[in-house]
Amino acid sequence: MGNTRRTFLITGGAMALLAGCGGGGYSGGAGAPDDPMLRPQPNPGWDAWVAGFRGRALSQGISAGTYDTAFRSAGFLPGVVERDRSQTEFTRTLEDYLAITANEQKVSQGRSELSRNMGVLREIEARYGVPPHVVCAVWGMESSYGTRRGNIPVISACSTLAFDGRRGAFFEQQTLAALRILERGDIDPAHLTGSWAGAMGHTQFIPTTYQSYAVDFRGDGRRDIWSDDPTDGLASTANYLSRSGWRRGEPWGLEVLLPAGGASMAGGSRSGAGWAAAGVRPAAGGSLPSGSGKLLLPQGAGGPAFLVYRNFNVILRYNNAQNYGLGVGHLSDRLLGAGPLRGSFPPDRYGLTIEDRRELQGRLNSAGYDAGTPDGVLGKKTTAAIEGYQARVGLPVTGEPSQGLLAQLRRG
């Protein structure tokens, strides 16, 4: 499977996760999506595609009954096409990424879920060798611990994208795989739901990955990653990581402190003894792991430093983005009780620290402009709020933050 499990969704790495953390039009609950553009609408072209696809699906072993039942309630979803075409290739900094995916609320929620599910997670670890806190971190990254599993019908979403044609062959393959899920009886059409691009369940498997890696952990005859019970979803994730090469008992990596001039060693690989001899030490104290580790400086010499090991590369098989791998690793450490990163992040391109950005958002909110949650992550709401404030006070309307803008907001 390689990296097809998630990176098909959004190129640019960091955004793939953001889609899984609560993109438009899907939630953990039942019922139709709130966005009317994500509900079936008449489209004769899609109807013709469905009629033509029927023969291809039946030739691949799908029964006529399964096919006709699956498509009886399916339809063309224009909002899916809109989302697919409006994807942007950009990555957030690691600082912003962690502020979204490993913030204190996510850590607190994750610790509760880890404790509540520890029994089954220990059973999963015994079978697949992947520790509970790592599986739980993936769960948190992908669906906020099951609260955002998706409620868009997978047959409708995948067939819409197959018909649309931009990635037609890929999504025809996903539609066929979804039909095989129905053929096998793992789920019924009404509950075969997911994100706008067909990622499903507690840990957001696409249909082909489900076929290859989903497991029936309790042996009840169904590989159910959709229900409120996360057991099969968590076990399937552990199976995926195990079969991707996870090494039991080895770390993903750790934050480290560098000696003066140590940034020049970025990208290099050495043994634990070699790194220690070079003056690298664990940020949390103690000694370095003995295996071969690679030094990463995701935000350059001014930001935190990490040594990553073989299991980090296994996490990247789940989503081939450096920020994602560091996010899962860091969140998994936090779930075990570790504190925030010790290293500081440099100011952004506007000269603002994350504390500055949080203050900016808070002051915009207080001034009557909705900048969203003051998390220090600048998005569309913050931009619109800045534009509104700039227009009101007679500044050039750029939508961009600055130290000067923050100073003016402080003055009221």
Automatic annotation (TrEMBL):
**Superkingdom in the source lineage:** Bacteria
Query: What is the protein name given in its UniProt record?
Result: Lytic murein transglycosylase
The record, for PANTHER family, names: LYTIC MUREIN TRANSGLYCOSYLASE, MEMBRANE-BOUND LYTIC MUREIN TRANSGLYCOSYLASE B
Q: Which SUPFAM superfamilies match?
A: Lysozyme-like (SSF53955), PGBD-like (SSF47090)
Instruction: Please list the residue ranges annotated as the Transglycosylase SLT domain.
Output: 47-333
User: What CDD domains does this protein's entry cite?
Assistant: Slt35-like
Please list the residue ranges annotated as the Peptidoglycan binding-like domain.
355-409
